[in-house]
């Protein structure tokens, strides 16, 4: 069976690199490992199209610096950023810099595989992202003022408790607002909500 596509894994943790290589190789991706963003950038000119899966916190050039360099050079490789728990604000910033998605460690194998499959299909979609922006903006308009405040808190990486404290209402009430936001925005996950907020103009670059 031919490879499903190229995946370039960048992580300074050898155990994580080995684990991702085993996982992605088992589902027929062609995997290349890099121990640093510097090593990846050095090899970039020789690489075929593929999805980059990069840790965000690395010594030297970290995931954010890598995204900035790829964006500056107009490189088309889609990037999925791996973050630790509590790094949602950093992940939001990464998506503003052009990352196609982010995933929090520890993550489910199938979720990462699905993200990579989606990322590898992106170039075939052409300008699809721009075309859906007005529709997403319309979804944002359906949010009540309080729901909009809750969405802004969520995409800023705030917990339900922190948002509740900020507006002096119960965390349980925030859960209700959060569910309403996810339904109205048609978002199945926090990363999807962040993407929609960016494309709909709720988050500016």
Automatic annotation (TrEMBL):
Molecular function as annotated in GO: DNA binding
Gene3D superfamilies, sorted: 3.40.50.2300, Winged helix-like DNA-binding domain superfamily/Winged helix DNA-binding domain (1.10.10.10)
SUPFAM superfamilies linked to this entry: C-terminal effector domain of the bipartite response regulators (SSF46894), CheY-like (SSF52172)
Start and end residues of each HTH luxR-type domain: 136-201
Transcription regulation as UniProt keyword: yes
Pfam families per UniProt: GerE, Response_reg
Signal peptide bounds: none
Gene Ontology BP terms: phosphorelay signal transduction system; regulation of DNA-templated transcription
Entry-annotated residues carrying 4-aspartylphosphate: 55
Positions of the Response regulatory domain: 6-120
Keyword entries, A-Z: DNA-binding, Phosphoprotein, Transcription, Transcription regulation, Two-component regulatory system
Stored InterPro entries: CheY-like_superfamily, Sig_transdc_resp-reg_C-effctor, Sig_transdc_resp-reg_receiver, Tscrpt_reg_LuxR_C, WH-like_DNA-bd_sf
Protein name in the entry: Two-component system response regulator FixJ
Organism the protein comes from: Rhodopseudomonas rhenobacensis
């Amino acid at each position: 069976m031919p490879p499903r596509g190229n995946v370039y894994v960048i992580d300074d943790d050898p155990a994580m690199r080995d684990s991702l290589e085993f996982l992605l190789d088992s589902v027929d991706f062609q995997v290349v490992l890099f121990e640093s963003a510097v090593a990846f950038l050095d090899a970039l000119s020789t690489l075929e199209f593929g999805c980059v899966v990069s840790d965000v916190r690395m010594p030297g050039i970290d995931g954010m610096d890598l995204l900035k360099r790829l964006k500056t050079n107009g490189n088309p490789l889609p990037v999925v950023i791996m973050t630790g728990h509590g790094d949602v604000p950093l992940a939001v910033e990464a998506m503003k810099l052009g990352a196609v998605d982010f995933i929090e460690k520890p993550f489910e194998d199938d979720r990462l595989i699905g993200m990579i499959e989606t990322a590898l299909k992106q170039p075939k979609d052409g300008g699809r992202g721009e075309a859906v922006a007005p529709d997403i903006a319309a979804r944002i308009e359906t949010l009540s003022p309080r729901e909009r405040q809750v969405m802004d808190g969520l995409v800023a990486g705030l917990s339900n408790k922190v948002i509740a404290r900020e507006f002096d209402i119960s965390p349980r009430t925030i859960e209700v607002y959060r569910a309403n936001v996810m339904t109205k925005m048609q978002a199945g996950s926090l990363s999807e909500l962040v993407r929609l907020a960016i494309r709909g103009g709720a988050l500016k670059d």
